[in-house]
Every structure is written in C-alpha cells, then in structure tokens.
Design goal:
- This protein is α+β, with helices and mostly antiparallel strands.
- The protein is built from 8 helices and 21 strands.
- It has helices at residues 3-9, 213-216, 228-240, 274-283, 308-325, 350-365, 375-379, 408-416; strands at 11-18, 23-24, 48-56, 64-70, 78-90, 93-94, 100-101, 109-112, 117-119, 123-124, 141-150, 155-157, 164-166, 185-187, 190-191, 193-201, 205-211, 244-250, 288-294, 330-334, 371-373.
C-alpha cells in the first residue's frame, strides 16, 4: 500500500452539520421568520427559477466536504444546478476566493424525484488546509444552489434560528457570485439541504442530538448558536479538539411516536415521528457513534395525547433500530425538562407533567440507555414544579417566555451539566 492509499484509509466521512428535513414549506414552526411572500408568492409553486444561499455552521472541518440535497417531501421532481460552497464573510457575502463549484457524478447538477436525496461529489475546501482547527470553529459555510423551473412543495427545516438568503423568483443561477447583491431576501429556515459531510480522521466520533424544539433551539438566540447542543459542542472541542463532533437532529413539535398519520399531502408541524425518521436523520448520517435522545413532551401535549406506555414502547423500538443499524452505537437518554404551567398552547397541564415525570422515571431506571443525562435536575424548580424562573424569559424574540422552552441560560445549564467523560473519544 502506498503512502497516499494509507492516508486515504486513515480518513472517513463524518457528518459535520445537519438540519433534519421535516416536511413541505410552510408546514412547521419557524421562529423569527421574515415575511416570505415576495420570495415565495405561492407555497404550492415553491421556488421558481431562483437561487438559495443557506448559511450553516459545521461542527467539524475537513479538507473536503460533500453535501446532501433532499426532495424528501416534494411532490414533483426538482432540478438543482449551479451548486457552490464557500466561507461566509457576513450576510450573504463570501470570503473572496472561497466559493467552490459542487458537482454530482461529475455534472453541474442533479434532478431529484419526489422522496429522494443525493450526496454531491467531494469538493475541496482549500481554506481548511493548513489552518489550525481552532481558527475555523464557529465559522459558517454558505451553500448556494439554483432551483431550475418550479420546485413545487419545498422540503425544509423550519426552525433554523439562522438567517439564510434568497434571490427573487426568476433571478436564475446566482450561486457563483461571492457578493450579496443578488440575495435581497432572508429566511430563518433551511431548504432542500439536510446534511454536510467532512473528510475527517478515521478516529473522529460523531454525536447526534435527536429531539424536538428544545433540541432545535426554541428560546435561544437568533444567529447566536446557543442551543444546548451548540454549548455542548464548544465544551467538547475545548476538551477533545476535532476528535468529537455533534450535530443537531431536533425538529420543533416532533414526537416520539406521533402523529398516527402523516404525509407530504397532509403534514403536521413536527413532521413524522422520531421513530419513523431515524433512518434519514440519524442512521443515514456518516460516522455516527453516539445518540442523545431528548423527547416526549409533545407526545403528552393536547395535540399528542399519547400514553406513557406508548412513548416508552417507542423509545424501546427506536433504540432497537439504532443498535441494529449502527453496531457499537451508544444511546444516551435525556430526562425531559418541566413544562408545568406553560403558556404555550396545548402544554402546561397537570396530566402532561404527571406523564413527563413517569417517562423520566423510565429513562432513569429501565436500563434501556447506555447512560442518562438528567436535564430535569438542572431546570426544575422543586418548590413550584415548573421551570426555574431564570430560564423562562425568551432570548430569541423577547417577551416573557412560555415556561416550556428554556432560554439561553437554561440551555447553558443543560449542556454544562453533562459529564464529558460519557462522550470522550
């Protein structure tokens, strides 16, 4: 084996970013969303001959990347062309000279039938080579692409809490540009792109945070990257460098086992159940070694009305599927934070809290998980049974908060409570 072959064998693809596809726009629960009627006049028509510049923050950086585009929830084929990836400078402007053309099987684009996705060819990231990883941590990629013709219903991730940029309909292919003048419109959501892989050292370990809006980041800071997985990421990199990464597979309003019926033609805000989306959102990612699963609150809301037994059975089935598909994977269960007294519609009632406590007892005591992260312990006000008062005010759009979603202070406390020894390489 030659030196180059040995070097190639010492690396593997590891997912460095993900934004789980959840349904067709506009079904979902975005936060801080601008008015999109000028960018997308008709949700049924979707994008029309226009370009997207999506801003994403990789948790890992390698010398090469590949992108996964998805038409998972479309109802007609979508043609993507003019795909590029570069380093964001600010807004929709890129660092000069960083933008790189992305191909699919050697060609300029790809057509995805309904329900399909595709990985791009590897694309070199020359700005990564030679730089200490610490200088890239926190930097963001701009992934640009052109939708030729009409897309129809757009596969999206609603609650990005990250501004991305859009051209007007009919603007054509603008992704090769490094300035921002062609991208006047903004969106706090991601569209069509659901994963970015990095070419990493073979020993790199990936953690997937699977959950609902509390993992997706409701109540954190727009563009602030302070969801609890983001805070945990910074702790992990401070301790282990690039040997461990974490990606966020949270979806606002998602449930463990509900809804009973879901399709692109009759979607719900939270998408398909966590158990049903495991294949695409966890197993289908690259290099997964650990899953942290924090979920169940929405199952017990007035929208879900699930029994504790149904949710525990869902956890058992999900963990079984993960271990069957990913030999050696470690699955960590996280206890649910309190929501008693929440002002959020469908939440806050006593029955929900009773079920939450019962589920937490199961997570702690059933022996299903390889370890337990006790988020309830750091967020619960024992005297009131509610969330600690300091964790309630909303950090994203202001206001009093809803008593369901922690704010930045709450997410910092959650991530800070985790024993890094459980996640060490």
């Amino acid at each position: 084996m030659g030196h180059e072959d040995a070097a190639a064998d010492a690396r593997k693809w590891v997912t460095g970013w993900t934004g789980s596809a959840q349904g067709p726009y506009p079904a979902g629960s975005p936060l801080a969303q601008p008015d999109l009627r000028f960018a997308f006049p008709s949700p049924a028509q979707g994008a029309r001959d226009q370009s997207f510049r999506l801003i994403v923050r990789p948790d890992l950086w390698g010398p090469r990347a590949r992108l996964r585009l998805s038409n998972a929830f479309g109802t007609q084929p979508v043609r993507f062309a003019g795909v590029h990836v570069g380093l964001q400078l600010g807004g929709a402007t890129l660092v000069a000279g960083s933008n790189r053309r992305v191909t699919f099987k050697g060609t300029d684009g790809v057509t995805l039938p309904p329900g399909e996705s595709a990985w791009s060819d590897p694309v070199p990231l020359p700005f990564v080579d030679g730089l200490p990883p610490a200088l890239l941590e926190g930097r963001k990629l701009a992934v640009s692409f052109h939708v030729e013709g009409d897309s129809g219903p757009m596969t999206w991730h609603a609650k990005a809490l990250q501004m991305s940029y859009l051209t007007p309909p009919g603007a054509g292919a603008q992704g090769a540009r490094e300035d921002e003048l062609a991208f006047p419109f903004t969106s706090a959501s991601w569209y069509f792109l659901d994963a970015v892989d990095m070419w990493m050292e073979a020993g790199t370990r990936l953690i997937v945070a699977l959950g609902d809006s509390i993992t997706d980041g409701s109540g954190s800071t727009l563009n602030g990257d302070d969801r609890w997985p983001d805070v945990l990421s910074r702790r992990l990199h401070a301790a282990f460098g690039q040997r461990v990464g974490i990606v966020n597979a949270g979806i606002g309003s998602n449930q463990v086992v509900g809804p009973a019926s879901w399709s692109p033609w009759s979607p719900t805000a939270g998408g398909a159940s966590a158990v049903e989306r495991l294949e695409r959102d966890v197993i289908g990612l690259s290099g997964v070694s650990t899953v942290i699963w924090l979920e169940g609150t929405n199952d017990f809301s007035r929208n879900g009305n699930a029994s504790v037994e149904a949710v525990t059975a869902g956890f058992c089935e999900g963990v079984r599927r993960l271990r069957a598909a990913l030999p050696g994977v470690r699955v960590l269960g996280a206890t649910l934070v309190p929501a008693l007294g929440s002002t959020a519609a469908a939440h806050g009632h006593r029955e929900q809290d009773d079920k939450r406590r019962a589920l937490n007892d199961f997570i702690r005591g059933a022996g299903l998980f390889d370890a337990v992260l006790d988020f309830e312990a750091v967020t619960l006000d024992e005297a009131s049974g509610r969330m600690k008062e300091a964790f309630v005010p909303d950090g994203t759009v202001g206001g009093p908060g809803d008593g369901l979603h922690p704010n930045r202070a709450g997410y910092v406390a959650m991530a800070g409570s985790i024993d890094l020894g459980l996640l060490a390489p």
